[in-house]
Amino acid sequence: MAVRIVIEFFRVRQEDGAHAVVGRETEDAFDRDAAIGRAWALAQALDMPQRPDALTVTDAEGRILYSCSFDAVLKGEERSFV
What we know:
alpha+beta; four-stranded antiparallel sheet
């Protein structure tokens, strides 16, 4: 059974760590891996006003399922913050 997820793409200000959402999508996914796959596909396909630094995937109750920094992934240092 699919569950509703929210994918947020955001910029992070280095000086103080403040986050600014540059994109938000609501999707359905069958499991955590499908949700992460959809988030990565959207990161490459969406036309956002700025290039995001990171993304977060949450479930309908707001629990974080996955979160990562794009720079960390590109450097091979991917960390899921869950």
